């Protein structure tokens, strides 16, 4: 018992998400995606090579 308020809140949030689409700034999203692609390179990930579960040595 006592789940009434939580369920009502979830229902309210679900309705808001379903019927009120948020404003999307597609230009900003494109800029962020372009910045992420240009800033990441193979050098950023070179230190993580060999960190997979097969190389952990806990066998």
Automatic annotation (TrEMBL):
The signal sequence is none
Q: Where is the composition biased (Basic and acidic residues)?
A: 25-34
Compositional bias annotation for Basic residues: 1-12
Q: Name one Pfam family in it.
A: DUF3073
What is the recorded name of this protein?
A: DUF3073 domain-containing protein
The record's InterPro entries line, in alphabetical order, gives: DUF3073
Q: Where is this region: Disordered?
A: 1-59
Compositional bias, Low complexity, is annotated for 35-49
Native source species: Corynebacterium nuruki
């Amino acid at each position: 018992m006592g789940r009434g308020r939580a369920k009502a809140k979830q229902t309210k949030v679900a309705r808001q998400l379903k019927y009120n689409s948020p404003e999307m700034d597609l230009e900003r999203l494109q800029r962020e995606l372009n910045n992420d692609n240009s800033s990441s390179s193979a050098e950023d990930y070179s230190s993580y090579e060999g960190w997979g579960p097969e190389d952990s040595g806990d066998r």
